[in-house]
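[INFO] parsing input record for Long-chain-alcohol dehydrogenase 1
[DEBUG] input buffer:
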Amino acid sequence: MSYDMGFVPPALFGPGRLVEVPSRAKTLGARTALIIADPFLADAGLLDPLTAGLKAEGLDVDLFTEFSGEPKTTHVTAAARRADSVDLVIGIGGGSALDIAKSAASIAAPDADALDYAVGGKPLAARRPRLAIMIPTTAGTGSESSATNILSDPDGNKRWIWGHVTKPDLIVLDPELTVSLPPALTAWTGMDALVHAFEASTNRRTNPGGQLHGHHALQLVARALPQAVATPTDIEARGALMLGSFHAGIAIDNCNCAIAHNISHAMASFGPVHHGLATALAFEATLPWLVTQDTAELRAAATALDCSLTNLPQRITALMDACNIVRALPETCQIPGSQALAAAMTREPNLGILEVTVGAPDAQAMARAVFELLGETA
Ligand SMILES: [Fe+2]
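[DEBUG] output buffer:
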């Protein structure tokens, strides 16, 4: 056996550690910073202490919040052009903010165009042109520890800016930043982390290094998620989710994902849907097929979830019930039928994810399973 493991950036974990960011930024050598943040963080004044701290350390600070929803190549292009005038990019927010910030720091230039990298195949520079600090405020995507940055192109297809160079110089995991996350978003993002850990630990590309992180993440997320949904201020549960998301990010960074993400990305091509919700629905719908594969890796992942492989579908259904996840797509994402979903699953670039799962899934059957879960026939 042989396999590669990508590097994991330095990370700080613990409640309240956001306050260390300004001094760390100065230690990295930054004199100017662009904060790329979810707009609501700025609107609610939640960035004020960070901005004040950076200024107290002598840094000039600019702010970029011109994005919403899932990240798009147009967002990254605009952010990368703004990032050209600073030497540090600080990403703070959910996975969208972090993917935009990591990408912008990696392609910063006055005439940068994210499409060149995400669609055109232009290689990233060997060294990231700007320093980068990433601060997640959700626990789900694991973007902070991943080389993958997912963006929608102008046609709505999911694309990637990929490279270990996009990983930041520092990660700050402060669970206090996640306590205001509403229960539904906590559940959706937590399930995304759980599926990252599961798929990375069980697909064709899995390896013992990825499984080490993936199994740890499965335990952390499965045990803490219902508690964090029920009691949002439980800082211990929030911390477990944040660490779980981080370790799941490392797992997926090394081993990639599988069928649930193929379907999730295919769903998103029909209209806006939260990535965590779509992924959770696809995971639950395809588990009955997946457990019939009965590999050692699947059995080990089930053990990490405190159940047998046979009982895994019921275990996940019970977990999603405990987190009050409604099995429905939003009005913004209506899929005309299972055949349309299957066609999207087998279209590039989604096809690449379909192929990294165990076995050879029948896209038509998987798409029908999703529709059955949603209570629809098509
Ligand atoms: Fe995901």
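[INFO] The first strand starts at residue 11 and ends at 13.
[INFO] shutting down worker
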